[in-house]
């Protein structure tokens, strides 16, 4: 982490969460995390109107994807070692 540095890590996290958020929105999910630049973080929480957070969490867990249920949504916390392909795996594991 020290070798890469905080700025490139932060940029990578925002890229991953932007990528995932956009695709979730396209699939009818709601993003609960703030998407405004000044309020952003590397954590993304989302929900679906017809699916419970527990159902979404169970689908991710079945696909061996780590997440957590938080405040009515599912939280995904990617980091430096995660990729867009892994964000695609999150999407593939979730019900439509």
Structure characterization notes:
This protein has 96 residues and is of the alpha+beta class. The chain is 43% helix and 14% strand. It contains three helices and four strands. The chain has helices at 6-26, 53-62, 84-93; strands at 30-31, 44-47, 68-70, 73-76. Strands 1-2-4-3 form a four-stranded antiparallel β-sheet, with helices on one face. A hairpin with a 2-residue loop joins strand 3 (68-70) and strand 4. Helix 1 packs parallel to helix 3. It is globular and about 40 Å long. It starts with 5 loop residues before the first helix and ends with a helix. The mean pLDDT is 94.
Give me some keywords for this one.
96 residues; single chain; 3 helices; 43% helix
Topology, element by element:
Elements (H helix, E strand, L loop, with lengths): L5 H21 L3 E2 L12 E4 L5 H10 L5 E3 L2 E4 L7 H10 L3
Antiparallel strand pairs: 1-2, 2-4, 3-4
Helix pairs in contact: 1-3
């Amino acid at each position: 982490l020290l070798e890469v540095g905080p700025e490139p890590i932060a940029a990578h996290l925002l890229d991953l969460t932007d990528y995932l958020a956009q695709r979730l929105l396209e699939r009818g999910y709601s993003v609960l995390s703030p998407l405004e630049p000044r309020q952003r973080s590397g954590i993304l929480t989302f929900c679906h109107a017809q699916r419970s957070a527990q159902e979404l969490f169970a689908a991710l867990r079945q696909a061996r994807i780590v997440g957590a249920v938080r405040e009515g949504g599912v939280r995904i916390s990617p980091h430096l070692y995660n990729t867009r392909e892994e964000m695609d795996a999150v999407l593939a594991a979730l019900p439509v």
